[in-house]
Amino acid sequence: MRKPMAAAMLLAVLAGPLASPGAADAGRRYECDTPSVSRLQQWLASGEGATVPATGSLLVPVGRHQYAAEVTFLGAEWHVAVVWLANEFEAQVDLSRSRGFWLTYSATEDLYVQLRPASHWSGGAQWLTPVPSTHGRMVTRFFSLRPGAWTSLPELGAPAHPFDVAVQEARGLVFVGKTANELDFRGLRIHGYVPPCL
């Protein structure tokens, strides 16, 4: 009796993470029926700065039922790539109880990610945190949502809103960079939040 019971417990431990959002990025059961990366369906080139693609979706197939968000920044100017956290522009998410997010990505140069709230969506004067270059290697890094981990750039301007507003009214994460860069996003898991598939 003990061996079957131990085997069943082992199977439960091994199968458990596949059912939970935090560990299921590689499993198609977790993804949406339409193209998505970590259930995020709207990865977009905004048309700001020269990018490939210039506008529209960044999602490309990389395997059976698997997608990546890929974009190339061209030249020495500010570039913008956007992901809507609730898969539609009009929506917002309260991340005040979230510890942060895990980003699985590769980047050939350094860049930044901005946390943009619905009430202050437009403009470059946003709270941001550095996203280090991976020199083209795929890595997973954790980015904290502690206020001390976020700052602003004088070149882009100081945010007119406090950081807690950005966290409570989060509409999207916006990746920005001023150098040529090849970016490949394979996962973006947010602690305490599961995006709705639309």
Please explain how this structure is put together:
- The chain is 12% helix and 36% strand.
- By secondary structure, it is mostly beta strands.
- The protein folds into two domains: 27 residues, no CATH class; 160 residues, Galactose-binding lectin (Jelly Rolls).
- The strands form two sheets. The chain has a six-stranded antiparallel sheet with strand order 3-1-6-11-8-9.
- A hairpin with a 2-residue loop joins strand 4 and strand 5.
- The relative contact order is 0.23.
The gist of it:
The chain has 198 residues and is mainly beta. It is 12% helix and 36% strand. It has two domains: 1-27, no CATH class; 31-190, Galactose-binding lectin (Jelly Rolls, Sandwich), CATH 2.60.120.430.
Which helices and strands appear, and what pairs or packs with what?
Blueprint: H1 2-19, E1 43-46, E2 51-52, E3 55-57, E4 59-63, E5 66-73, E6 79-84, E7 100-107, E8 111-117, E9 127-131, E10 139-144, H2 163-168, E11 170-177, E12 181-190
List keywords for this structure.
single chain; 198 residues; mainly beta; Jelly Rolls; six-stranded antiparallel sheet; globular; disordered N terminus
Strand content: 35-45%
Largest sheet: 6 strands, antiparallel
Structural class: mainly beta
What's the SSE pattern? HEEEEEEEEEEHEE
CATH architecture of the largest domain: Sandwich
Tell me the count of domains: 2
Please state how the strands of the largest beta sheet are arranged side by side. Answer: 3-1-6-11-8-9
- Extract low-pLDDT stretches: 1-28
* Named CATH topology of the largest domain: Jelly Rolls
Work out the helix count. 2
Beta-strand segment tally:
12
Query: Helix fraction?
Result: 10-25%
The geometry reads as globular
CATH H-level superfamily of the largest domain? Galactose-binding lectin
Quote the distance from N terminus to C terminus.
46 Å
Rg is 18 Å
Mean pLDDT level: 89
- Tell me which oligomeric state these chains represent: single chain
CATH class of the largest domain: Mainly Beta
